[in-house]
Give the backbone structure.
Amino acid sequence: MMDVTLQNFETEVIAASMATPVLVDFWAPWCGPCKSLGPVLEKLEESYEGRFKLVKINSDDEQQLAQAFGIRSIPTCILMMGGKPVDGFMGAQTAGQIQQFLDKHLPPADALQAQASDEAVADSDGAGEPDPRVALEQALATDPGNDDARFDLVKLLIGLGELAEAAALLAPAMSRIPVPLRFEAQTQWLNALEFVTTDPRGGWTLDQFDELIGQNKRDFETRFAKSRLLIAMGEWEAAMDELLEIIMRDKKWDDEAPRKTFVALLELMTPQKPKTQDATGKSAGGIELMGKAAVEEDPLVAMIASYRRKLSMALN
């Protein structure tokens, strides 16, 4: 079991689930059912001997991740496989109920052993399966115009903290006219993370920013710097609120950098449209929580729509 934050989510959940199913436990310190469920999950992780990986996300501390998964109540557990959510359940469950849930999706132990044996043989022949990063790099090397591979690889590199490599990978896309919106969005995200590591204000507290802003509401430079720190902290809603304050007062400030950053955040948060639907009409990206849809009235989508309206009002 390990704790996951926004900073290591890409590596410990998305990338890890490409090889081993990952069960994500959304919990909070004040939640009684969470405290009873946690030890049950940890014992099951031990007994399943590597057939799945257990991670815990504090939904209070990591609200962006909780919103992204549409978490309405805790505890909620989401099973990730191949980088995507496939199923989940809400509330404290017995060990037997969770075993039934896991056994629906996890390969049998003997199948896992056979797979490990096959992989060992393949590795000895130098033909092992590449990890997600290698696979994306190979896809991009084969087809430099593969925007999906470029976008996913940049996202993975940013998640790993390899900002220089991510910037180099973005450069060809940023040279296009017009620049594709999703790559502009990643560049704004990258700029915020680089600001924190290179600008002295990256080490400021939020109170230090607020003290200066309180003295001058039109101190846009300080407001914009604060928004970048909030982005790096994963507080994207708070960052957009700060950007809106600039936009409402001066739409053209700094070549519209606040508006561009605001739009970039909306683009990064907007879920990708599902490519397929099953016979019931439910999107392939939808998951079932013990038979109930987990993506109805997605609060993330509602929040994004709200901020789009706020931007429209600020610009008019």
The radius of gyration is 22 Å. Residues 274-297 have pLDDT under 50 and may be disordered. Residues 112 and 229 are 44 Å apart (CA to CA).
